[in-house]
């Protein structure tokens, strides 16, 4: 519904989907999504949203005075998986205009000490958001971790589906989700054998000789969960763009779901 890196007038987003027109976190009532806005005047209150070395995004919750609490927007972000809401991140490029960054999943949060609008110390909530659909990062064979190269497809699949152990700390759960999301991308790449899982054409060969394909998450968060072997496909750049933006993207999605389902069924006998 939004095009990555495209600039939108914030007002128009709310005219179409609803949600609060002000503030960092907007929660439309009639659509299963949450809009997050970063980078306007946040810095004034000690907000410092930033990317981590893992490719996740640290996002400071809402509330300008006093301790931040898990109410309204902060609660919505924390509970978005449970409530089947997708998170869409936008970044201000100038006043009233925002660029669409992508869809994210909340891995967890931490409470840090920061200064509020009145210059008082307070508890501040910092969410860690993981991009759902890594178009730009980690999408080629280069990204296959050394340690995984000798593993069988079956072993990779197991790794991709590994859940955090019961009673794990929130830090451990976050690490597990990160690992899984990396493993699932590697798994899809390996399963594809360099051939687009939608159109069947080979990806193009890069300068270093590796094949280029992109990993696409077929289902939205509101369907089956983003990190499952049946929910990802390694497809060519053209098919990837089509599955996001084509007029018949729903049809494409269903076709891809069928293809991957069949493939997984054959692999698991
Ligand atoms: Zn293709």
Short account of what is shown:
With 269 residues, the protein is of the alpha+beta class.
Low-confidence regions: 135-147
Using only C-alpha atoms, the radius of gyration works out to 20 Å
How many helices? The count is 6
Helix and strand element order: EHEEEEHEEEHHEEEEHH
Supply the helix-strand structural class.
Answer: alpha+beta
- Indicate how many domains the architecture comprises: 2
Tell me the β content.
25-35%
> How many strands appear in the DSSP assignment?
12
Ligand names: zinc ion
First-to-last CA distance: 37 Å
What percentage of residues falls in helices of 4 or more residues?
A: 25-40%
Mean pLDDT: 81
Q: Give the biggest sheet.
A: 8 strands, mixed
Looking at the structure, what is the overall shape?
A: globular
């Amino acid at each position: 519904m939004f095009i990555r890196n495209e600039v939108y007038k914030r007002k128009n987003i709310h005219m179409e989907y609803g949600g609060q027109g002000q503030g960092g976190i907007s929660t439309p009532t009639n659509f299963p999504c949450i809009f997050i806005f970063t980078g306007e005047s946040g810095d004034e209150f000690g907000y410092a949203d930033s990317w981590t070395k893992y490719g996740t995004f640290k996002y400071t919750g809402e509330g300008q005075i006093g301790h931040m609490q898990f109410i309204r927007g902060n609660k919505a972000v924390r509970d978005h998986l449970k409530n089947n809401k997708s998170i869409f991140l936008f970044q201000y490029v100038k006043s009233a205009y925002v660029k669409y960054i992508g869809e994210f999943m909340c891995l967890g949060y931490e409470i840090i000490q920061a200064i509020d609008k009145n210059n008082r110390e307070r508890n501040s909530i910092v969410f860690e958001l993981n991009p759902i659909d890594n178009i730009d990062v980690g999408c080629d064979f280069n990204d296959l971790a050394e340690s995984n190269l000798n593993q069988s497809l079956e072993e990779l699949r197991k790794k991709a589906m590994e859940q955090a152990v019961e009673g794990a700390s929130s830090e451990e759960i976050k690490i597990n989700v990160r690992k899984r999301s990396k493993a699932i991308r590697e798994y899809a790449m390996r399963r594809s054998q360099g051939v687009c899982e939608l159109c069947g054409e080979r990806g193009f060969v890069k300068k270093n000789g590796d094949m280029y394909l992109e990993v696409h998450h077929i289902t939205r968060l509101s369907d089956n969960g983003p990190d499952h072997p049946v929910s990802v496909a390694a497809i060519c750049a053209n098919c990837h763009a089509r599955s996001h933006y084509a007029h018949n993207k729903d049809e494409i999605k269903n076709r891809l779901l069928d293809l991957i389902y069949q493939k997984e069924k054959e692999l698991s006998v």
